[in-house]
Amino acid sequence: MSNDNIYNFTVSELIEILQQYPADMPVVVSGYENGYENFYQPFVKKVKCFFENPYYDGQFQFDDHGIEVLVLEREVRND
User: Fold this and answer.
1) In which residue ranges of the chain is pLDDT below 70?
2) Smallest Cα–Cα separation from 72: which of 24, 33, 23, 14?
3) What residues have CB less than 8 Å from 43, skipping those under 6 apart?
4) Where do the domains of the chain lie?
5) Cα separation of 62 and 43, whole Å?
6) What phi and psi, each to the nearest 5 degrees, are found at residue 72?
7) Using the 8-state DSSP alphabet, how is residue 8 labeled?
8) What pLDDT is recorded for position 1?
9) 32-37 long-range contacts, Cβ below 8 Å, gap at least 24?
10) Which of 43, 48, 51, 52 is nearest to 72 (CA)?
């Protein structure tokens, strides 16, 4: 299998996307467990910080009254 088709983004493609957003916009990533995955097209969501959340729930949760962040959400595979 060639590496040409297994990655969703290159550095230059990601830079081009990121330049569309304010330089001071926070960025969060989805996560859980181990290893690494491709990520979907970045998108903006409002989140609120919950320091007390356990690691598997994530420190930030979607909240319509939160602040806007750019989300890099990992690709979900069904295997």
Assistant:
1) 1-4, 33
2) 14
3) 70, 71, 73
4) 3-72
5) 13
6) -105, 100
7) S
8) 44
9) 32/56, 32/58, 37/74, 37/75, 37/77
10) 43
DSSP string, 15-77: HHHHTTS-TT--EEE---SSS---BPPPEEEEEEE-TTS-GGG-SEEE-TTSEEEEEEPBPP-
CA distances from 33 to 37, 50, 57, 74 (A): 11, 19, 11, 12
Distance, CA of 31 to CA of 7 (rounded, Å): 18
Residue with tokens 């750019």: 70
Please report, as a single letter, which amino acid is at residue 52: E
Tell me the one-letter amino acid at 6: I
Q: Which residue has the tokens 């569309």?
A: 20
Q: What is the C-alpha radius of gyration for the chain, rounded to an integer number of angstroms?
A: 14
